[in-house]
Design a protein that fits this description.
Strand content of chain B: 35-45%
CATH class of the largest domain in chain A: Mainly Alpha
Largest sheet of chain B: 5 strands, mixed
Shape of chain B: globular
Distance between the termini of chain B: 31 Å
Low-confidence stretches of chain B: 11-35
Radius of gyration of chain A: 26 Å
Number of strands of chain B: 37
Oligomer: heterodimer
Radius of gyration of chain B: 23 Å
Mean pLDDT of chain A: 84
Strand content of chain A: 5-15%
CATH superfamily of the largest domain in chain A: Cytochrome c-like domain
Helix content of chain B: under 10%
Mean pLDDT of chain B: 93
Structural class of chain A: alpha+beta
CATH architecture of the largest domain in chain A: Orthogonal Bundle
Number of strands of chain A: 7
Number of helices of chain B: 4
Largest interface: A-B, 29 and 46 residues
Helix content of chain A: 25-40%
Shape of chain A: flat
């Protein structure tokens, strides 16, 4: 195949390239592109001062939209930057590109900072990434799988299997520390994810509904009920609507799940981490 | 298509456009004769809502009340309101809004959008006559992080729009062709422009954005015919000028003192005064290098329209540390105050207070909180806030404030000031900025408690500042407000609802989910072919509503 990319050169009379020379030129061109791409790695990755300097740049240039804690601001659709590394598509190079070029069609602007400053900001964001469960959990993953099916999977999914009332746990150990995962089992109401806040309501026909709230405006509420059915209600038609404090998830005390049980379950979850669901 | 059908279609199209033309003619002012295309003049803008087939300036008239006399849509029939058409802009601004107020004349809407797009749209069908897209530089500064625009100014056959690269551009309203353009300031330093120009008889008045950068704000007047500058008022004084005593005696500090003027002002033709809000001092959160009150930041200024000379000022937030710009539409009304007729100007301020001032001399008549702000709860006898929490005690209203630039409305007779309130909780952590040309210098960071935000539409008695009624929203809201003489209030919220309320009770009478939050924009309304339309921008759409036939 002849590279079409050099055809524009032929429009100019002074460039009378033969096809063969065109191919060579194109090959050289693509080689250089590849070389340039290969060089897109953080040159400051090994410098511990980079993250610190990047923090100052972040506070001055990024914190207004992404929050001082980098956890994002919902009202302006600025994402939580501590979680971006959990996405498989995020690399230091892709982050560098986003900061430098901005995101078209959004308020994320391009940045004219010198490249080293952008790399410092990348280093900083890497340093504050939610790192997940670093240590390997000692447990019996096979037994953990059974414990999970018995106790958790009616509400939680792993690898595309299980319920949906609670969050998908396929990669949870990549985002949460061991301590916080244990805490979520022992005290589920202490921290409830934004899209899993519990609500209860009573309809005009006296039906009592409990669920996790997905969306809400001044007139309506959208939720998933305990039977995992998506339902929507007009607030004006409700007799009662309450934002609950207690999570719909049961408290798993030591009596319900021993430390060994918990470790087995977490070991199972860790063994699934990074795997893609098979559809 | 058969030949017969083709000619039938052509004939009916001709009849339709002719009938539309005739109706448009009969209901519009004599001075607006589109046949010889003189377009609306200053006298027409001055008449404001006297001709409700038009909407010729940002708020509909110079007073900023955003209160239309139209009474076809009433509290009784508003639940019948239906969308008639939706216009799609094709230009997005994720994170911000479609903030424009379309102008209306002779059945044609003149609309600006994000990223300096603009259109002339048929108000009957929502189809466009022309589109303009400005070729913007790729190294925009403030303009890249807030790529919005709030509307055209209009005079005769000219339209005026400001741009994200800090220019003022004049267009031919029939073609969208650029007639002239001038630079307001160097965008590379941090300047941008987003407001709708205020057009007087022989001047186009504009302000500037960029107070988050090392900039110095101004209000400018230009000759509509040529674009030549007539006067400039600097919102941050030069060393030695009045007001400079409220700053350190350092020309460098003054030169980067901020004080943006990015929201529309109002105009009193009898007093020949322009009223304009001034934004935050720079750096936003770090005050140690700018000790003093920092005039005229966070103030309302009254300027002589002919000369730009300062007549009076009132500073709402002296030495602001919270980015509480005072960029709001000043609302002018003549009301009875303690048995006396007073010419007043009213402001619902980002600092969470509602103010009434005598607009002849700037005397403070009332200053009352309309939010649960912990910053201050009263204004002292000296006209200054009694500050209880400068931010060090936590849970202050966030930098977007107790309200913001979204237009409020004033309902005459009931004397209600209706505005969107935001209840938020933030902690400010100042840090001395370093100054790099073209980079923002906020001077610190803010921790916003995302769990604690809410919003409300609130109606205040302007005589006491007391709350008459409210309608609450689940999140802090940026939608603006319009009222109509039939007893209706139209408002938008952050969840995308466009709503109508009874002005006396605050009862919600109608709502329509537009599909995207209503941010910064307020509704407009006009009479076309004998029918009242209501318009609201939302996300990437402009939707027109009317009652069914």
């Amino acid at each position: 195949m002849i590279f079409p990319s050099v055809s524009f050169l032929r429009n100019k009379n002074r460039y009378q390239y033969s096809t063969a020379r065109s191919v060579i030129a194109a090959a050289a061109f693509f080689f250089l592109i590849n070389l340039a791409q290969a060089q897109v790695v953080n040159p400051l990755a090994s410098d511990p001062r980079a993250a610190q300097a990047g923090g100052a740049i972040f506070r001055a240039q990024c914190a207004t939209c992404h929050g001082a804690d980098a956890k994002g601001i919902d009202s302006i659709e600025a994402p939580d930057l501590t979680l971006i590394w959990a996405r498989q598509t995020t690399t230091e190079a892709s982050l560098f590109k986003t900061i430098k070029e901005g995101i078209a069609g959004s308020i994320m602007p391009p940045h004219q900072n010198p490249d080293p400053e952008i790399w410092m900001t990348v280093s900083y964001l890497k340093s504050i990434a939610i790192s997940g469960t670093n240590e390997t959990v000692v447990g019996n993953a096979v037994r953990g799988r059974n414990m999970f099916v018995e106790n958790c999977s009616s509400c939680h999914r792993v690898d595309g299997v299980g319920g949906s009332l609670g969050p998908d746990l396929s990669s949870i150990t990549g985002r949460r520390s061991l301590a916080s995962l244990v805490n979520s089992l022992r005290e589920p109401s202490s921290a409830i994810g934004r899209r899993f806040k519990p609500v209860s309501l009573t309809t005009a026909t006296n039906e009592r509904v409990q669920g996790t709230i997905k969306s809400e405006d001044a007139f309506s509420v959208q939720l998933m009920d305990r039977e995992q059915v998506l339902r929507a209600f007009n607030k004006i038609e409700l007799i009662q609507f309450t934002r609950e404090i207690d999570s719909l998830m049961p408290v798993f005390s030591e009596a319900a799940l021993t430390e060994t049980d918990v470790n087995d379950i977490l070991s199972y979850l860790q063994s699934r981490r990074g795997r893609r669901p098979s559809f | 298509m058969g030949k017969k059908l083709f000619w039938k279609l052509i004939f009916s199209a001709l009849c339709f456009s002719l009938s539309g033309y005739l109706v448009g003619q009969s209901s519009s002012a004599p001075s607006s004769n589109i046949a010889n295309s003189v377009g609306p003049g200053y006298e027409d803008i001055l008449r404001g809502f006297d001709d409700p087939s038009r909407w010729l300036t940002f708020s509909g008239d110079y007073s900023g009340k955003r209160h239309s006399p139209l009474q076809q849509i009433t509290p009784k029939n508003v639940d019948q309101l239906r969308p008639v058409w939706t216009f799609q802009t094709g230009t997005t601004t994720r994170g911000r809004g479609f903030e424009t107020s379309p102008l209306m004349d002779d059945g044609i809407l003149y609309v600006t959008g994000s990223n300096n797009f603009a259109w002339a749209i048929d108000a009957r069908t929502g189809r466009s006559f022309w589109q303009h897209r400005r070729d913007l530089p790729t190294d925009l500064t403030y303009g890249a992080s807030a790529p919005v625009n709030r509307g055209f100014g209009m005079l005769g056959n000219q339209l005026f729009m400001v741009t994200l690269d800090a220019h003022l551009v004049s267009f031919d309203r029939r073609t969208g062709d650029v007639l002239w353009e001038i630079q307001l300031a160097d965008y590379k330093t941090g300047y941008s422009a987003t407001l709708a120009p205020l057009v007087l008889d022989d001047k186009v008045i504009v302000g500037i954005s960029g107070g988050e950068y090392a900039t110095r704000g101004f209000i400018d007047a230009y000759d509509p015919a040529t674009g030549e500058q007539i006067w400039r008022f600097h919102t941050i004084p030069a060393l030695g000028d009045p007001g400079s005593e409220t700053w350190p005696a350092d020309p460098e500090v003054l030169a980067r003192g901020g004080g943006g003027t990015w929201m529309n002002g109002s105009y009193d033709p009898a007093l020949n005064l322009i009223y304009w809000g001034v934004g935050n001092p720079n750096p936003d959160y770090f005050g140690d290098t700018r000790l003093g009150d920092n005039l005229y930041s966070n103030s309302l200024v009254a300027l002589d329209a002919d000369t730009g000379e300062l007549k009076w000022h009132y500073q709402f937030t002296p030495h602001d540390l919270n980015d509480w710009d005072s960029n709001h539409v000043p609302v002018l009304a003549d009301i009875e105050w303690n048995g006396q007729e007073r010419k007043v100007v009213m402001v619902g301020n980002r600092n969470g207070f509602f103010y009434v001032l005598d607009r002849v001399n700037g005397e403070l008549l009332l200053g009352k909180p309309f939010t649960a702000t912990t910053w201050a709860r009263e204004i002292g006898a000296d006209g200054r806030p009694i500050v209880l929490n400068d931010g060090s005690k936590g849970c202050l209203p966030d930098p977007w404030g107790g309200t913001n630039f979204m237009p409020p409305s004033f309902y005459p007779g009931l004397d209600l000031f209706i505005l969107t309130a935001r209840e938020t909780c933030a902690t400010f952590v100042p840090e001395e900025p370093r100054y790099v040309t073209g980079q923002s210098s906020f001077g610190g960071v803010v921790f916003i408690d995302g769990e604690q935000g809410s919003g409300a539409l609130r109606a205040l008695d302007v005589h006491t500042g007391e709350l008459r009624w409210e309608f609450t929203y689940p999140s802090p809201t940026f939608g603006g407000v319009m009222s109509t003489a039939a007893g209706l209030v139209f408002a938008g919220d952050h969840e995308g609802n466009f709503m109508a309320f009874d002005v006396e009770s605050g009862e919600n009478l109608w709502h329509y989910q537009t599909g995207s939050r209503i941010w910064g924009a307020a509704a407009t309304t006009y009479l076309l072919d004998g029918k009242q339309y209501v318009l609201i921008p939302s996300g990437t759409t402009l939707t027109a509503f009317a009652l069914p036939d």
